[in-house]
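To whoever is on call:

I kicked off a structure prediction for a single chain this morning and the downstream step that reads the tokens threw a length-mismatch warning. I double-checked the sequence; it's 78 residues and nothing unusual in it as far as I can see. Pasting both halves so you can look.
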Amino acid sequence: MRIFAIIPAFILAGCIQGDVESDMGSAGYKDGYAVGYNSACNHGGNVIHGEWGNASYANAYQAGHTAGTNDCKAGKKI
């Protein structure tokens, strides 16, 4: 009977970890976008999370940085 109590705990833990990863990915993209846009448009500096040890954050940061730089060069206003 204890096995049935343990299984939901593992499922819940997996869901929480997934939320953390997606939150860090979202933060990474937003940080990267802001830095890319502001750097390309010669705007001020940014304060970012800087979670470089988190693969979700780092990968999303790169994608956001590229998108922000491209949007600035295309003349998009944010």
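Update from on-call: the warning came from a stale cache, not from the record. Cleared it. Sanity check on the structure: The CA atoms of residues 24 and 54 lie 8 Å apart.
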